[in-house]
Design goal:
Elements: H1 15-24, H2 27-32, E1 34-40, E2 43-48, H3 63-79, E3 87-97, E4 105-113, E5 118-127, E6 132-143
Antiparallel strand pairs: 1-2, 2-4, 3-6, 4-5, 5-6
Length: 151
């Protein structure tokens, strides 16, 4: 990934606390044991420790799990740049799984192009040995004046 995330200025100076609180409310991330490890304007990293319960029939981390952490990494990269009064939803993503996922994983998401309504992001997922496991490109839609809080 080429573009440095530091080129972005968040609209919310308290973006990190807001994003971490949002991530903490994700029951799906708790279920799989994922952690929001790094967060900067336009960039996030989601870490996942290997567990047998997350594997498919051959013992590799299931592709759906890989997609989950890449989706979140992209989502929080985009959300870090959005106003505090907003939330977001994934509109579309394309993931290419490039190698079997073995061991702990790290998904690094970054904003390619922020927009008023739609933002484009990308993620790469690597395993604990540095192998490039997957690449994702994603489009997210900002929901203006719809805070990301529980109902």
């Amino acid at each position: 990934m080429n573009a440095p995330a530091s080129r972005f200025i968040p609209k919310d100076p308290d973006f990190a606390a807001r994003c971490r609180a949002s991530f903490g409310r994700q029951a799906a991330m708790r279920l799989i044991g994922a952690r929001l490890q790094r967060l900067e304007p336009g960039l996030s990293e989601v870490a996942l420790a290997f567990r047998d319960e997350l594997t498919q029939q051959k013992g590799f981390v299931h592709g759906g799990i890989i997609g989950m952490i890449a989706d979140c990494a992209c989502g929080y990269a985009a959300y870090s740049l959005m106003p505090a009064s907003s939330s977001l939803v994934t509109v579309e993503y394309k993931i290419n799984i490039l190698a079997p996922a073995r061991g702990d994983l790290l998904a690094r998401g970054e904003v390619i192009r922020p927009g008023r309504t739609l933002s484009v992001t990308r993620a790469e997922v690597h395993d604990q040995h540095g192998a490039h496991v997957a690449s994702m490109q994603q489009t997210l839609m900002m929901l203006a004046d719809t805070p990301d809080v529980p109902d």
